[in-house]
Specification:
The structure is a single chain. By secondary structure, the chain is mainly beta. It has an 8-stranded mixed β-sheet. The chain has a 5-stranded mixed β-sheet with strand order 24-48-47-26-45. A 5-stranded mixed β-sheet has the order 36-42-43-40-41.
Length: 861
């Protein structure tokens, strides 16, 4: 009897201990995720652009949105967004022009957008020498540099250059040079095949992924395997096949739908290797080995039960069946359910099979995850699931008429439900000609924030998942297939549950800063006096350093602001101190998944773009892609004090600087620093310090120097320290690049197919200056872009606007506000096109509700 009492007491103690342990686990899991959510939650960026297809010299109009991934985040969102245009450019593999050409991914344009109110707006000009190709627009905040680059915002754009395409075609027809030479002007072709292949054969290749539900499967258990077939073009592919065990026993057969999705259930999973035999609709067969099963572990099987119709029903739910190996139960297993903000449900796992259901109604739209971990935070299985938005409370767009004529005023009314109105609501608007451009990127702010932002890889037909006209059950079922086949590790739950989160290296950027250090003869100078001067913003500051490092905080400066930084000894006399500014840091280059395929455009599009390009009178387009002589009007001047060795040679106004223009910078700049700060596409060689100019073909060449009309050899430039000439000794200068530099090529460069950049100066005394003081440096860190207003013509009286109107983007606004009733309106005028127009409105309203609406304006034919 005494023994029985002891046994009962022991069991009660164990049960109490287990409950106490689980209570600690529950508190610990929620607390750990709460700390992460409040302090370390990542940010998300979304960029709405006026369209998805742009031509060389076109303007990309941008509206940005930033928000914390967690609604529990304690820190406000960042105040700056970095926007980059990333493209493949042809690049010479060797210095010689006889070398080969390769693709190199690079940032061709970068802008920094600042928050004004609750709006980020900006623009970006597509480089003139861009080739017809696909590109990526990327956006991120400084805080997002702490996260993997894959999760930064990106969208696919198509870049066209009909002028260059026509030019290259004419060169090839005329057989002026070998094909490789044309690559510097155009796109990089595919490598030549030794065996000719048809276009159809190329697209017959495919790949298949076999993905165990929740990340693994266990020998002896029932296993659900999700399947994704991917074609050579990156899209899903319909496939069929069978799975066999290591001894050839048939285990299951499967088929995938047109998007490549499929799944199969294998009962009593055998040990050993498993193979799949797969074939596509053309009969092309392949064999694949499946991931090996585990001897013990945890699996999570999820099952959706969603009613039909457009809304979520009261009985809609997702059920989970968790299988755990017996030996692991002693480790204190538990399951947690979380979204991006909180752990909202948790349960103890004390048997080999656990079942529970979760109602879908009331869950926040977005990606949710169930995780099984032990008392030490070790994660054994994870299964994501998506909750898609539903219901009819959406933004609506209306126009006053059903059909419009040319140059007619269109008034657009936008409304959102009253329940979603607040002072922070903000929407951006775009109107484009559907006959000239199409939506290449189907992602909207809703589909990005709720789905794409937390998934890796290309999502095919992403707009379908958010189409309220599709039954909710169908959307949810396919979204679940997507979640099990796409990469999904946005939150590193094991690190979070263990409290082993990586300490952030980059903070949230609320204000701009300039940092650096001062070096003396023997290292860091701890007793230096530093002065800062930025003439363009009328800024100056000074201070003494105690550590050798300096941080200038809360400096508000736009792009192209030049800072002159000087350092001296504490007595103000010792000049042997050199200030070194910390370089701007940006996200690393990454090749994001976009669809393969050639960029094409219509004959009408080409005609309109060429007219815009060649008829431009702003002097901005230096390259005329034509084989025949033409006259291009531009802002050409013949300066009275021109340093050109060719008398009375007209040059572009933007290429010339006189003493008046250089006056604000003469105090601290030398010649090289001023050229670097004033002209785009110039950098300093890290080998010898010579100036290098980008020829426009992604090839850097030494800048040829003329002083007072005389060409100076590169050796003399180096030996005489001529690039360190103080700017106050320069009376005027001209910097030319591209074809503008052709007439000024030295004799030894006349045979080069691409002209070298040229810098021509007149000195004040006609002589050559001495080396500038080493204690002064000049730098132009990246500043925020000043917002610009989109121009949209008004045809509000007779005779207005006699010229041809072939606008591709008819209207753009980065920010419209709704009134207290949830309504807003705007107007624009149609062009001379008879094609229909697309109105797009995107944005965010109360409680993180996302809106994306579209309306087609029908034109009289």
């Amino acid at each position: 009897m005494k023994t029985a009492v002891k046994l009962i007491t022991l069991l009660v103690s164990l049960a109490a201990g287990s409950q106490h342990l689980y209570a600690q686990q529950e508190k610990n899991a929620k607390g750990m995720f709460e700390n992460f959510s409040k302090l370390l939650s990542p940010e998300k960026v979304y960029l709405h652009t006026d369209k998805d297809v742009y031509h060389a010299t076109d303007t990309i109009w941008i509206s940005g949105y930033v928000e914390n991934s967690s609604y529990a985040g304690e820190f406000a969102e960042s105040n700056y967004i970095y926007v980059e245009l990333i493209a493949d450019y042809p690049k010479k593999e060797v210095e010689s022009w006889n070398g080969g050409i390769s693709r190199q991914l690079e940032v061709v344009e970068r802008k920094k957008l600042r928050r004004f109110g609750n709006t980020f707006s900006g623009y970006m000009v597509v480089p003139e020498m861009s080739s017809t190709s696909k590109a990526v627009l990327r956006g991120y905040t400084y805080w997002m540099l702490n996260s993997p680059v894959e999760y930064m915002f990106y969208k696919q754009l198509e870049i066209t250059n009909p002028m260059k395409d026509r030019f290259i075609s004419a060169l090839k027809d005329a057989r002026i040079s070998s094909e490789d030479t044309y690559l510097l002007f155009g796109a990089v072709p595919e490598k030549k095949q030794t065996k000719k292949m048809s276009a159809e054969a190329v697209h017959e290749d495919y790949d298949v992924q076999f993905l165990p539900e929740s990340g693994n499967y266990i020998v002896g258990s029932d296993a659900t395997i999700f399947i994704k077939g991917i074609g050579a073009n990156g899209k899903g592919k319909a496939l069929s096949g069978s799975i066999v065990s290591h001894n050839g026993k048939h285990l299951a057969s499967f088929t995938t739908d047109p998007l490549g999705f499929g799944k199969v259930l294998i009962k009593n999973l055998p040990a050993g290797k498993m193979m799949a035999s797969v074939a596509d609709s053309h009969g092309i067969g392949k064999n694949f080995q499946l991931p090996p099963p585990l001897q013990e572990g945890v699996t999570i099987n999820g099952r959706l039960a969603v009613s039909g119709g457009g809304n979520s029903g009261d009985n809609d739910k997702i059920s989970f069946r968790i299988f755990s190996s017996g030996r692991l139960l002693a480790r204190g297993l538990y399951a947690v359910l979380q979204n991006g903000s909180e752990v909202y449900s948790q349960m103890e796992i004390n048997s080999s099979q656990s079942l529970f259901s979760l109602p879908l109604k009331g869950l926040e739209p977005g990606i949710h995850t169930i995780t099984v971990a032990d008392s030490n935070g070790n994660v054994y299985a994870q299964r994501p699931f998506a909750v898609l938005p539903c219901g009819n409370e959406v933004m609506e767009i209306d126009t006053e008429k059903d059909i419009y004529g040319k140059r007619e005023k269109v008034t657009v009314n936008v409304s959102i439900p009253r329940s979603m109105i607040d002072s922070c609501s903000n929407f951006s608007v775009s109107v484009t000609d559907m006959g000239l451009t199409d939506n290449v990127e189907k992602t909207t702010i809703e589909s990005y924030m709720l789905l794409k932002s937390e998934l890796n890889g290309y999502i095919e037909n992403i707009e379908w998942y958010f189409d309220r006209n599709v039954p909710y059950a169908s959307r949810m079922a396919r979204a679940d297939m997507l979640m099990q086949t796409q990469g999904w590790r946005y939150y590193e739950m094991e690190n979070i549950l263990k409290g082993e989160n990586t300490t952030p290296v980059f903070g949230k950027e609320y204000v701009q800063t300039i940092a650096g250090k001062v070096m003396g003869v023997f290292g860091i100078s701890k007793k230096a006096f530093v002065t800062f001067y930025a003439p363009s913003i009328n800024f100056s500051a000074m201070g003494q350093l105690d550590s050798g490092y300096f941080v200038l905080k809360d400096v508000d400066f736009p792009e192209k602001t030049k800072f002159i930084v000087s350092a001296t000894g504490k007595n103000g006399k010792n000049m042997s101190h050199t200030p070194i500014l910390q370089k701007d840091y940006f996200a690393p280059i990454y090749r994001y998944p976009i669809l393969d395929g050639k960029v094409t455009y219509s004959a009408r599009y080409r005609e309109i773009v060429e007219k815009k390009y060649y008829n431009s009178a702003d002097g901005a387009h230096s390259m005329a892609f034509t084989l025949d002589p033409v006259v291009v009007t531009s802002q050409l001047i013949t300066p009275a004090n021109s340093p050109s060795p060719i008398p009375n040679r007209p040059i572009k106004r933007s290429s010339y600087r006189d003493a008046q223009a250089m006056k604000p910078y003469m105090k601290g700049y030398d010649l090289a620093s001023y050229v670097l700060a004033s002209f785009a596409g110039v950098r300093r060689s890290q080998i010898d310090g010579m100036l290098l100019g980008n020829t426009g073909f992604n090839n850097w060449k030494i800048v040829e120097l003329y002083i007072n009309g005389t060409h100076i050899h590169a050796n003399e430039v180096l030996n005489g320290n001529l690039l360190q000439m103080p700017l106050y000794e320069v009376e005027s200068l001209i910097y030319l690049n591209g074809l503008d530099a052709s007439p000024f090529q030295p004799v030894h460069l006349h045979l080069s197919p691409v002209p070298s950049p040229v810098l021509m100066i007149n000195t004040v005394s006609g002589g050559r200056g001495n080396r500038a003081n080493p204690n002064t440096v000049a730098s132009a860190p990246i500043g925020w872009q000043k917002p610009a207003r989109f121009y949209s013509p008004k045809y509000d009286y007779m005779g207005r606007g006699k010229g041809e109107d072939n606008r591709i983007t008819l209207y753009w606004s980065p920010s419209i506000k709704v009134d207290k009733s949830g309504k807003a309106s705007f107007s624009f005028y149609t062009s001379d096109s008879t094609a229909d127009f697309r109105i797009e409105v995107e944005g965010r309203s109360a409680a993180g509700k996302y809106h994306a609406a579209e309306k087609i304006v029908v034109m009289k034919k």
